[in-house]
Amino acid sequence: MTLIIGLTGGIASGKSTISNYLRSLSLPIIDADVEARLAVEKGEPGYSKIVEHFGTKILLEDGSLNRAKLGEIVFRDEKQRAVLNGIVHPEVRNRMNKKQNEAIAEGHMAVILDIPLLFENKLDSTVDKTILVYVDTETQISRLIDRNKLSFEQAKLRIEAQMPLQEKKALADRIIDNNGTVENSQDQALKILQDWKVI
Ligand SMILES: CC(C)(COP(=O)(O)OP(=O)(O)OC[C@H]1O[C@@H](n2cnc3c(N)ncnc32)[C@H](O)[C@@H]1O)[C@@H](O)C(=O)NCCC(=O)NCCS
Ligand SMILES: Nc1ncnc2c1ncn2[C@@H]1O[C@H](COP(=O)(O)OP(=O)(O)OP(=O)(O)O)[C@@H](O)[C@H]1O
Prior knowledge:
cytoplasm, about 55% helix, five-stranded parallel β-sheet, P-loop_NTPase, EC 2.7.1.24, ATP binding
């Protein structure tokens, strides 16, 4: 039996930092952000639907999506975000399901689904266990500003587009506190997987 683990958090809370570590332990990782990028590449159905709705103003010169510009629109406007989600999320789900089935067929002890919007989209019922990568709001904002070179206001808008991490805490099976060092968070992750006997 393969244990299906949903790894979630908030924007810049440290999901990729943890999933990269889990990958180094040979666990298969399926990343919703990666699949969401592939689903909107030029030529994909998702790409055409986005251009149809948002117009060519959200394209770069080479015809690919200008993600910064699209982000500026959808993180300021809930309705536009819902339109984008409606286009991208079904494609992401199909792609992830396919990869999940492949990982199960390969006989892995566990498969990790890295899904930022796991609780928002009520996908927790589709996994066996959930892990939340948690950070305090101040740490989250400062790491997001540093990583994405955003203004304080832009960072706040992105965080506010998601369920507060405090609320997610109550929903998760296990929590990794990522306010400390990366090594400390990796140890917490290892302990959880050992408790679940998948490592
Ligand atoms: C708005 C877009 C173009 C911005 O692209 P950008 O390269 O700047 O960000 P990236 O895709 O790397 O996402 C970074 C983080 O933003 C957060 N985020 C992204 N989309 C959303 C959303 N619709 N609602 C809330 N948070 C979101 C997630 O925490 C994600 O990890 C892009 O995020 C997108 O297409 N979003 C819609 C699809 C989606 O929901 N993806 C998230 C996982 S399925
Ligand atoms: N424990 C830590 N100490 C210091 N910096 C950290 C720590 N964990 C993560 N970071 C940094 O914080 C930023 C966000 O981490 P990461 O990219 O792993 O988050 P994420 O949740 O995957 O983000 P998103 O899903 O929004 O792309 C990165 O720049 C990363 O290097």
